[in-house]
Amino acid sequence: MLLADSIKNLEQRFPEAKSLEEIYFRIEGGDRSEAGIHNSL
User: Fold this and answer.
1) Side-chain half-sphere of 26: how many Cα atoms within 13 Å?
2) Distance between CA atoms of residues 36 and 6, nearest Å
3) Do the Cβ atoms of 36 and 20 come closer than 8 Å?
4) Model-level pTM?
5) Are the C-beta atoms of 41 and 16 separated by less than 8 Å?
6) From CA 23, how far away is CA 41, in angstroms rounded?
7) Which of 1, 6, 30, 35 is 20 to 30 Å apart from 22, CA to CA?
């Protein structure tokens, strides 16, 4: 349940993110193109 709760919290924190991978790169400050994410928000 802890993992499910953590994912739910992240989805609420980043509602416009299209994937968990995108959330990860936002948190880490990474380059979104490295994740294959090319849409603009």
Assistant:
1) 15
2) 24
3) no
4) 0.55
5) yes
6) 13
7) 1
5-36 CB burial, b ≥16 within 10 A, e <16: eeeeeeeeebeebeeeebbebbeeeeeeeeee
Tokens 């609420």 sit on residue: 12
C-beta of residue 21 within 8 angstroms of C-beta of residue 35: yes
Each residue's pLDDT tens digit, 1-41: 899 999 899 999 999 999 988 988 888 876 555 555 555 54
Contact 32, 22 (CB under 8 A): yes
Q: Break the chain into its structural domains and give their ranges.
A: 2-35
